[in-house]
Amino acid sequence: MRKDLSFWKNKKVFITGHTGFKGAWLSIFLKKLEVNLYGYSLKEEKNSLFNKARVTKLYDISEIGNIKDFNKLKKTLNKTDPEIIFHLAAQPLVVESYRDPKNTFETNIMGTVNLLEISRSLKKLKVIVIVTTDKVYKILKSNPEYNEKDNLGASDPYATSKACVEFVTESYHKSFYINKKNLNVVTVRAGNVIGGGDYSANRIVPDYLRSYNNKKKLKIRNPNSVRPWQHVLEPLYGYILLAQNIYNKKINTKKFESWNFGPPLKSFITVKKLMEKFQNLNYLKNKVLIKFAKENKKLIETNVLKINSKKSFKKLKWRPIFTIDETISEIINWNRKAQNKKNYLDTCYKQIENFLQKI
Q: How far is the C-alpha of 188 from the C-alpha of 183, rounded, in Å?
């Protein structure tokens, strides 16, 4: 598999949202594959993986800007003229989407429109991977594992905005990209990603680790909600593999496609069960005092969410690597090593190396 990944050496790759959690991990992953990196994103938070690992030094060009700024984005894309684009820039938090739905819709929908519109004129571009979410599906009472052919539908502003991104992307593909022989755009839908270096607010794992490190009580909403938990490297490897296959024309580019990247069935567990797994780790010195809050009826969230990734298994030969317990161990090990030695980038590289050895 290493030999296959040599494809990436010296490829010109552009990442939107590169200063975010997934963006930072994707940047480090791709740099390990020796790509030429270009990025466009809002300024990183001081307390972020991008800042702590000094990811900016991996970039040939790292432009700070808002995805809603059409002219600045166009100038940056024209200047870099990439071969492959990964579009991660978004307002990614459900709770924040309730606080500011207008910005969520503008960022996620019109930000994607801006990228797709500008990309039409880029000469060397071959592949655009648009990152949406597993929350785009219309939820059924039977709680099935949703596949790429299932209907889209959503309720909260974040998921609705991402469902709209799916339609926008399909529209651009059918209206403008289908006649471009060497350019294809796809959407990808990942399960709930967790991993070392996530410092986001209102996300279960960083909230737990903050409570553990600061010896504070942790308040959890919706403890019985089931989610497809997976290590952040799992879907990122899927995105990389998909882009490589499209570039090499091993995927049919005439048809618009979406792709699921989710964990094994045993990783579909409740929020409460996930917390229990963290609490039961023998090498954690203390237990976090957890209070499970009553359901907030103002925040409408899916109770059970499972996704089916058989298409990626079959067509890409992609497979989840870590069990849920291994994922948790990777997170705790990252937290201990990076925090103690203050060598965040090296810790990420080592975990990527470990991941690649298991492929």
A: 17
